[in-house]
């Protein structure tokens, strides 16, 4: 190595690597094949995830349909019970002989209806809460599974 006065240095007898096109082609081909393989794997995973999501949504919709039927039946039963209680109360009012008896029957009926309405509301709330949990469970499970798989990968 010889030094030239100043700030620069020169290197003598240095061999530069030669460019071999056949090796470059092989490397590009290998990189392209690897990219294609990774794309196939990603597409396969995406397809599998989409299928899982579709099944979760189908299950959710089926569960929502079932639970909405249950909620409807509960509401119909409550309406029927209230209507029957109202007709029974009207029959009792038809036999009233004094205003005090009327007020006594009316007060007892209203008191009973308020208690019954509170019970019906609690029962309906419980059914609706369970329905919401049941309907969201398939989506929640699919989401949790996807998160676990992503963390494992």
Radius of gyration: 39 Å
Helix content: over 70%
Structural class: mainly alpha
Strand tally is: 0
Element-by-element helix/strand order? HH
Q: What is the mean pLDDT? A: 82
The CA-CA distance between the termini, in Å, is 52 Å
Instruction: Provide the low-confidence segments as ranges.
Output: none
Q: How many independent structural domains?
A: 1
Q: Overall 3D geometry?
A: rod-shaped
Tell me the strand percentage band.
under 5%
The number of helices is 2
For the report, how would you describe the main beta sheet?
none
Protein name: Phasin
Organism: Mesorhizobium tianshanense
Pfam family, one: Phasin_2
InterPro entries: Phasin, Phasin_subfam-2
Q: Can you summarize this structure?
A:
The chain has helices spanning about 20-95, 100-150. The chain has about 150 residues and is mostly helical.
Fold blueprint:
Elements: H1 21-94, H2 99-152
Helix pairs in contact: 1-2
Description:
The chain is mainly α and 153 residues long. It has one domain. Helices cover 84% and strands 0% of the residues. The two termini are 52 Å apart.
Quick tags:
mainly alpha, 153 residues, 2 helices
